[in-house]
From TrEMBL:
GO terms for molecular function: L-serine ammonia-lyase activity; pyridoxal phosphate binding; threonine deaminase activity. GO terms for biological process: isoleucine biosynthetic process; L-serine catabolic process; L-threonine catabolic process. In the native structure, TdcB is in a dimeric form, whereas in the TdcB-AMP complex, it exists in a tetrameric form (dimer of dimers). It comes from the Bacteria. Its EC number is 4.3.1.19. Gene3D superfamilies: 3.40.50.1100. This is L-threonine dehydratase catabolic TdcB. Pathway: Amino-acid degradation; L-threonine degradation via propanoate pathway; propanoate from L-threonine: step 1/4. Belongs to the serine/threonine dehydratase family.
């Protein structure tokens, strides 16, 4: 169902990663490396973006999934494979299986975004929706593997998966041989471990920095304890790195070869995603934006040139809208205010005129006239405004108060 004891003890080597690179030739794209002048100015050193969000299936996951499935014995291939995932791993397994002529079944949570469910089916997998959280989905997938003999394809905890992901590291060294620091998002640890194996074997001077969402950061306490420990109830918008416990195989590699693991906040993730969209013209999911979030939150802390790995771009449009507004708010470019005014004809028009004077762009207006909290002559208005930054937010609030409005928040 998972990996054997021998697998869990097997060391991943540079030769394994090079073998994976040959196997992936003509299958996975050599993704672009884009320089970012804006980030370079902000961080104070040259910054390049490794665009795995432009990989087939929209993330790096195809690399490891293909190498793992390609390495199965003929009788294992005949039994089919099974995986559990809310998105990127699901699509990677589905496409890899189709390319190799292997039957695949992918269990996904019932609440998985519809675009990810549709894409997984279109890549050739049979999708089964089960459970509300990934742990329930994972249990269903492992039960299915036990009952049917299908091979369970773990998203990160297997040497072949790590070797496949490590091909990203080889490409980085080929595309940016002068690199001094590589920053990569960390969930279970497969990508960071694979990159570290490849890069440290060839360039031990390159610093590898992992990044986790603060609400789902299992690696810092695990590294402190010297063993993989779990985080109860991980919470983050970055579902690609929302993992409660490091994988046993990648943890050993990360502990040995990754120089540092940092954490970033939800505000920092949102701001980074917004920056990638506006400045780099790249659609990146929150997990993929985590290295950029680390760079923005710690300018001057990284020796350059720096390569930030944008691990994926599969973001649900509904989540994208919410994250963009969150990112604008984090940068002081989005302001929500609630205020009371006299309920009379023309009152709302007067309010909007007051906002136009200070050049605030009104995105949404909610107007409540009947509420037990309101007096007979009062109305409550909630406004969502696009602003130009923190100073403009202060100016807008001040203008509303000077115009006689009671700003509640």
């Amino acid at each position: 169902m998972g990996y054997s004891t021998a697998d869990s003890l097997r060391t991943v080597t540079l030769d394994d990663v090079r073998g994976a690179q040959k196997m992936l030739s003509g299958v996975a794209r050599t993704t672009a490396m884009e320089g970012s002048r804006y980030l370079s100015r902000r961080v104070g050193t040259p910054v390049h973006l490794k665009c795995e969000n432009l990989q087939r299936t929209g993330s790096f996951k195809l690399r490891g999934a293909y190498v793992r499935i390609a390495g199965l014995l003929p009788e294992e291939r005949a039994a089919g494979v099974v995986a559990a995932s809310a998105g990127n791993h699901a699509q990677g397994v589905a496409l890899a299986s189709s390319l190799l002529g292997v039957r695949s079944t992918v269990f996904m949570p019932r609440g998985a975004p519809l675009p990810k469910i549709s894409a997984t089916r279109e890549y050739g997998a049979q999708v089964r929706l089960h459970g509300q959280v990934v742990d329930e989905t994972l249990a269903a997938a492992t039960d299915y593997a036990y009952e049917t003999g299908a091979v369970f394809i773990h998203p990160f905890d297997h040497p072949d998966i790590i070797a496949g992901q490590g091909t990203v590291g080889l490409e980085i060294l080929e595309q940016c041989p002068e690199v001094r620091t590589i920053v990569v998002g960390v969930g279970g640890g497969g990508l960071a471990a694979g990159i570290a194996v490849a890069v440290k074997a060839l360039r031990p001077d390159v610093r590898i920095v992992g990044v986790q969402a603060a609400g789902a950061a299992a690696y810092p306490p695990s590294l402190a304890a010297g063993r993989a420990v779990s985080v109860r109830h991980p919470v983050t918008m970055a579902d690609g790195i929302k993992v409660g416990r490091p994988g046993d195989v990648p943890f050993g590699i990360v502990r040995e070869l990754v120089d540092e693991v940092l954490t970033v906040t939800e505000d920092e993730l949102s701001a980074a995603l917004l920056l990638c969209l506006e400045r780099a013209k790249l659609v990146v999911e929150p997990a993929g934006a985590s290295p950029v979030a680390a760079l923005l939150s710690r300018p001057g802390a990284f020796e350059g040139p720096v390569v930030a790995v944008l691990s994926g771009g599969n973001v649900d449009p509904v989540l994208m809208e919410r994250v963009l507004r969150h990112g604008m708010a984090a940068q002081g470019r989005y302001l929500a205010v609630r205020l009371r005014l006299t309920d009379r004809p023309g009152a709302l028009a007067s309010l909007l005129r007051a906002l136009s004077v200070v050049d605030a762009n009104v995105l949404d207006v909610s107007h409540v006239r009947t509420d037990p909290r309101l007096g007979l002559t009062e109305a409550e208005v909630e406004l969502h405004l696009e602003t130009k930054g923190p100073e403009h937010c202060t100016e807008v609030n001040q203008a509303l108060r000077e115009a006689g409005y009671t700003v509640m928040d």
